[in-house]
Write a structure and sequence with these properties.
two-stranded antiparallel sheet, about 270 residues
């Protein structure tokens, strides 16, 4: 059995020259939370995720808006990661809606006019094709599995320490690292929250007498739920069974988008 410190958790290649790996990319403000030490992720996989997969997180309108609203700082260069909502991927669908408040005063020899001109609403739209949905799914599954690995490396892991190279994790590893099977999107569930936050956290769930594991990840805004152990053939069925009773609005993101739970009404995030 491959051992941590010798084989990469993704490709099982040598980690002799590996670097530390930040589960959540540093540009999203993660300096020291959930950092995998050398010997866990090889340099090739680390570079691949950083350049090819993780940029899909910034294409999500909710995540991008929160980064702008909270002025998330990239600790790598000390600069704000994102300071504008609009870019070529997030194009306004209509001109901004403004309100204007005018207050006119007459002084001894002049008119004084106070003008308050506030932008109060602007709608942005991001359309997804299957490729973009797949990249977003791969990025979330990458974060979820590495977060699970981080929890497993803690002194008292819950669930109890597992073999991270067990065949049960093969499907998620093949999807996040290699996009296998091609032409498919490994499903995940998005659930709404009552309020946004500048924080992120991960929680591990056990189902069916802990034969299956899922992880829900709060990435600033909505909860994103993935199965860690389901095969590609079973993952959609499992997520639908596990999440359909959510008290919050829940949506299945796969080859298509669809509601799992109406919750209290509305849509995620």
């Amino acid at each position: 059995m491959p051992q941590l410190g010798k084989n990469c958790i993704w490709c099982e290649g040598s980690t002799a020259n590996s670097d530390v790996s930040h589960v959540l990319p540093r540009c999203f403000g993660n300096l020291d939370a959930q950092v995998l030490s050398k010997g866990v992720v090889c340099r090739a996989c680390n570079n691949f995720f950083g350049t090819q997969i993780e940029p899909a997180l910034d294409e999500d309108p909710v995540i991008r808006a929160i980064c702008v609203a909270f002025r998330v700082v990239d600790p790598g260069d000390g600069k704000v990661f994102r300071d504008r909502l609009s870019n070529q991927d997030h194009v306004p669908t209509a001109p901004p809606v403004h309100t204007m408040d005018l207050n006119l005063r007459v002084s001894a020899n002049a008119f004084e006019l106070d003008v308050t001109y506030d932008e109060v609403k602007r709608t942005f739209q991001k359309k997804y094709d299957r490729r973009h949905v797949a990249l977003f799914s791969r990025s979330i599954h990458k974060l979820a599995f590495e977060s699970f690995v981080w929890h497993q490396m803690q002194p008292d892991p819950k669930p109890a320490r597992l073999d991270l190279f067990d065949v049960r994790f093969s499907s998620i590893r093949q999807w996040a690292r290699y996009g296998q099977p091609q032409g498919k999107v490994r499903p995940l569930v998005r659930m709404a929250v009552d309020h946004i936050s500048a924080e992120w956290e991960a929680q591990v769930w056990g189902f069916e007498q802990a034969q299956h594991l899922a992880l829900q990840l709060r990435l600033f805004g909505d909860w994103l739920v993935v199965s860690l152990t389901s095969s590609q053939a079973q993952v959609e069925e499992h997520l639908m069974r596990w999440c359909s009773a959510s008290p919050k609005p829940a949506w299945l993101i796969s080859n298509t988008f669809g509601p799992l739970s109406a919750g209290n009404g509305g849509e995620p995030g």
